[in-house]
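Just curious. Protein, please.
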Amino acid sequence: MIDSIKETINDALYFGPKGIVGIDIGLSAVKMAEVVKEADGSYKVMNYITVELPEGTVIEDEIQKEDELLEALQRGLKELRTSSRFACVGLSGPNTVLKRLQLAGGSDEEIEDQVVWEAEQYLPFPIDEGNVSFSIIGENQGGGVDVIIGAAKKSVVNIFKELVERASFKVKIMDHTAAAMINVVEISLGDVVKGRGKTWIIMDFGAQKTNFVIYKNGVIVFFKEINIGGLTITEEIQRQMGVSYNEAESLKIQGDGNGNIPEEIVEIIRQVLDSFFAELKKTIDFWVSSTSEETFDGCILTGGGVQIAGFVESVQDLIETEVIVLNPFEGFTYNSSKISDDMLQDIASRGAVAIGLAMRSIAK
């Protein structure tokens, strides 16, 4: 209690900028962003930095190389040159949950009790070992309320929080990376995806996994992690070609250096993507069978994996609907003194989560 009071006083006496630095700790890199909300309600990306991580630094939501990750966080803070010390850190993985629940409704206390009761059935850990929060998103057809719950195992939260704070940040918020991604989608695409009667698939094809979201009527109604990402392709290239991790990454994205992907690499990529598309089809079929909804207004893609040759076209062929590659700068302006034109493509493909985390604000 005394430590909590001291922390509150220290924060109140802090006169520096109280903006949030969004920190997305992925398998291949740490991404950091600063975003400000302008007087007219628009958002501006003030700063962004990517720090690559050594292979195997983070696996799922477990830190394997603590020193290397701490060094990357410290380097990121130095290169970001920010005077803000507050951070919002993204979490995902097997020890996190993001789920929509339909509840009977009632008073605030009754809804909270229902959240606890229902959440216990879905958490991969005992509820007393987790941090659980929820947000009411509207009424349902049964006369009750729909809520989105976010949960993470306390031990995972504490490990990431402690390490980020060792890098001289003050962690004020932990958020699910999929929710952060939706923040950016809503600003960048606005009325295209929001509104009654609209149903979109939104996917973040990352290094280790793919966050799959069904976004309907302006809210998340379904979420799943598909355990295939860009790293799966890299590892298969390593295995079949007998090359290092870095060589495999280069072959996957750059090919022979002249923009040509060798045929054997194309075949390896196709093999992995076939597995991914099989999982994607199963996920979509599950949604369709449980809801009887067979049509989507479109699909939005983000993540480093969208740079893989033929990926976007293959997704479009599978789901037979419009596919949009998310570009945050269709809805955000940016600080050209700190963000060069050369950085825009990297931010657009890999930076959505960090930007979404940086949009969060500290409760007054």
Summary: The chain has one domain: 2-358. The domain at 2-358 is CATH 3.30.420.40 (Nucleotidyltransferase; domain 5).
